[in-house]
From TrEMBL:
The keyword Iron does not apply. It is found in: Cell membrane. It is a multi-pass membrane protein. It comes from Haloarcula argentinensis. Pathway: Cofactor biosynthesis; adenosylcobalamin biosynthesis. Converts cobyric acid to cobinamide by the addition of aminopropanol on the F carboxylic group. Keywords: Cell membrane, Cobalamin biosynthesis, Membrane, Transmembrane, Transmembrane helix. The keyword Cell membrane applies. This is Probable cobalamin biosynthesis protein CobD. NCBIfam families: cobal_cbiB. PANTHER family: COBALAMIN BIOSYNTHESIS PROTEIN CBIB.
Amino acid sequence: MLNALAVAVAGGLELAIGEPPTRLHPVAWFGRLVGTVDREWDHPLAVGGLAAALLPLGVAVVVGGSVALAATREPMAAVVLAGLVLFLTTSLRSLLTTARGVIADSDADLPAARDGLLALAGRDASALSAGEVRSAAVESTSENLADGLVASLAAFVVGGLVAAGASLPPLPVAAGTAAWVKAVNTMDSMLGYRSKRVGTPAARLDDAVMWLPARLSALLLALACGSPRSVARARAWLDGVPSPNSGWPMGTAAAALDVRLEKPGVYVLNPAGGLPDMATAQRSVTRVGVAGVLAYLLAGLGVLAWF
């Protein structure tokens, strides 16, 4: 019950606040720590492997220990703290707001839309057409459903279940596991580029961590779009996507909306379709929001069912 209450606290904070300012966000603080690793090293793989092993683990220990300490004083304080941790490791409302703004600008003010896209997608937007900007926004919201929400919620649920099976306190372990997953994902987003050998271990770890959340997100999107067959259709287009995981929610969105999603020179999802128009792109953002609500509900119900 306490774990389910923590999920409710996180969902309530997401609805009420959306996301705290960057200067106050612990994920941004962790990002500055990761930034100290982002330089040239004589043995980049060794340094990167050590960082990928120790930095997320350190975050998990601090978070889990804090929740455990709070639980010794007042159980509800531990619930609020765990809910706050889960909230800080997820992002949905700000993602949807940013995507809607980019899509709205794609027809009215294309340069502004290209600039706004930088907050969603790590690609050169300077030469993108309006349709390609909308495609990138749809791709990013679909992919970030997994990275920014489902991964942490799933980690919270699974961590609590494993802890209960091992006779450990579920709430501290659940919160620590969610924080660990977010730390791994943050390291990958900062260091996981082919040009940065130091980031290779974090990238490989993130590939493993995101295997399940990416596929869960695809299923949630299919449900939100009322298109259960879209996950199976997406499989045919995934070979061209460099990431082993991100193609699943993006491909599912392409199939469910019957649009082409394209990163020029890299991949094309649903090549027979056309690039999303304004209405379709905005509808996709709404469907990601529905999938996010479903993720919160399923996380809460999953905790209650097992405990």
